[in-house]
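Bump. Still looking for Histidine/lysine/arginine/ornithine transport system permease protein HisM structure tokens.
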Amino acid sequence: MTDLLQEYWRAYLWTDGTRLTGLAVTMWMLVLSTGIGFALAVPLAIARVSPRRWLSLPVHLYTYVFRGTPLYVQLLLIYSGIYGLQIVRETELLNLFFRVGFNCVILAFVLNTCAYTTEILAGAIRSVSHGAVEAGRAYGMSDAVLYRRIILPDAFRRSIPALSNEVIFMLHGTSVAFAATVPDLLKIARDANADTFRSFEAFGFAGLLYLLATFFLVWLFRKAEQRWLRHVQPHHAA
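Sorry for the wait, here they are.
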């Protein structure tokens, strides 16, 4: 284990000397995909709960497809399948985008986590107190103001526990990025194993880093819950 770490520990953590690798790439993919996915999920969640079928139905179909198929399959379709289409190869911008593995990985991760986050936020929006909404309407708030001041802030707070689970699942899901030759944590572990044939050490150290990253995310979301969900924490008698 010591020899393997002496040779590969930098690659496991952040660089192989020429590019970002390992844990740094894994966390960068996680931040990018969950950040973009959350931003897209907010308007989609609003559309998802809309009584207008022409708004809610397309969103429902999108979330159904991406939550009903494996992330690995989605990545392969985007990385290998879409790039194999003639129209993609003949369109300069599409060709430039889909020929880069990292772009395909981020696109697949964004679409996947956005689908889950959309349903999480839609459920939280539906659970917002009807009385609070009616009180806002009594004050003359428009739908846009209601969402900005009452519905979305309350929904965001309610969804923190579920969002924390989705971010952790997405962290674990980033391990499929090796299929697109992205030098993430698992790709470095596979390379170390191929070079040293020390599978337990190579994959064990990667598993330890995933575990530490998970603990860090759990700690962050626990702090967020303590701050924004303080009003629903149980109060113990002295």
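Residues 2-228 form a domain with the MetI-like fold fold (CATH 1.10.3720.10).

Edit: fixed formatting.
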